[in-house]
Design a protein that fits this description.
Elements: H1 3-6, E1 20-22, E2 28-30, H2 31-37, E3 51-52, E4 59-60, E5 67-68, H3 70-89, E6 111-113, E7 118-120, H4 122-130, E8 139-141, E9 160-162, E10 167-169, E11 184-186, H5 187-295, H6 300-309, H7 321-328, H8 332-350, E12 373-375, E13 381-384, H9 390-395, E14 404-405, E15 414-420, E16 426-433, H10 438-443, E17 452-459, E18 462-467, E19 470-474, E20 482-488, E21 493-498, E22 503-509, E23 516-521, E24 534-536
Antiparallel strand pairs: 1-2, 1-5, 3-4, 6-7, 6-8, 9-10, 9-11, 12-13, 13-24, 14-23, 15-20, 15-24, 16-17, 16-23, 17-18, 18-19, 20-21, 21-22
Amino acid sequence: MDVQEDDLKCPVCVELFTDPVRLPCGHNFCQTCIQVVWNMDDPKTSGEGPLFCPECQILLPSDLKLEFNSDLQRKVQDVFAGASSLEGSSHMSPFIIMCDQCIGKTEVAVKSCLSCDASLCSAHTLLHQQREALRGHSLIEVTEDFISFKCKEHGEELKLFCQEDQTTVCCLCIVVGSHKNHQTVTLQEACSEFKKVLETNKSLLLQRKHLAESAMQDLKPLFSEVGKNAEAYRLRIVEKYNQIKAQIEEDQKLMLAVLETEEIYSNKWLRWKNESLECHVKDINAALRSSQSLAHNVNSLAHNQHLKKHRLGSQVELPLVSVIEQEYSSTDKMKTVEQLVDNLDEVVLQNTQRLWSSLRAVNLDPETAHPELEVSADKLEVHWSKKPTPERKRKTNISSQYSVQVKERFSSGSHYWEVAVWKKPYWLIGLSYGSATRDQDSEHPNSDFNSVFCYIYHGNGKYLVCQDSNEKSLAVRKIIQKLGLWVDIPKGTVSFYDGDTLTLLHSFRVEFSGPVCPILNPCIEINGLNSQPLSIVHLRNKNNS
């Protein structure tokens, strides 16, 4: 309140003036306040003792007539009008309770008395504080609701606090009521104890706040560290792949060069063979010509001598053409090159098969979520919410487990997906049977399609796998932060992996009786723990089939 408004306050009640009167010394008081000070409202003491000003202590004549200060009253009314205007502009209706003790002109109440069941203006409040008979009354902030401050059973004022039932009671409650023989203290003592507890809790909360803020500060550099680590790994992986690519390209050049060389030397051999055959053909042609000339020679002696000299009398032996074709059509080296490439393909791709190449982009189905689970807008996360949704509860097919299904159904092929579980103390991930479409599931809400027949469960550091009703504990050395699930329907296997290290945790042989559906159960929140979500892992920059 500004200085001008302070000048409009009565020095006795320290409230805005009500019917202000001005004394000869120039000081102003509420008419009721100055009468209370002078005991003019008490017939027994009225007129006794000198009149004086409470401010400057100057003595005043006993027959003094109080002078009403109309200018001051007008200023007070202007202040009230301004306050009402402000309240109206704020769309607030002023809550004003009038004094129940005033006769004639009623004043605004500033306190309420539980003993009198009445609201009091500043003058009557001062009267309660000064008179011996009224000092024991309980004064509270002005109210119209006196019932809430009194015992509903006995109608007495609530002055005590029952420590056993942690509630306020009246005196009769501990004597003849339902709190008989209970340990009680006064409301003031209870308030003091509560204040101590609040101070202790405040101290604990401040400590936890400090720890949380410190933890947040510790997390800040981790964000940049994750980014730096990812960039460093990215550069190293790119460099290694570039080296592998370079080696493969060099190997490709080598193999193509071998093929080219083989082609050159095969052609050389074929040319040499062709030249040999050409020479042989020439010799045969020469022999044929010689034979033809001798055949026409009439001199038998000379003819026989020539045949004997050139050995033309016996049958000519020619090389087999088929043998020659087999020799020069050999492709052994080319086949070796192809075999080496096949070996490289087997080593690079088949012996180093990546499960992540089969990672499926599955999405949660909010319609199948338990009412107390919340699915994120992108349908990749689910967590405990404690916000039941009756509409969803009527639609959901899973009523006994805090689970949610994914939209996808798998009835053929092999599939892999991952779920980030981080460090949740409790979670369950598995498979249930479902129809080829979710609409068919909803038609049979009581069928066996929604039963989880295979799962892995984590409970406070311990891991358990289960197929149908056969459970088995797993000895896991490293805390799993991402769980991978591989389903190979043609081979009839279900396998659980550590999604970070691709270490096989356990594998089941399964005779699939229908389309399988992934299911996630984040489990309930316990004492503020386990509220973290389960997150389905989607590969970025990759279109999953």
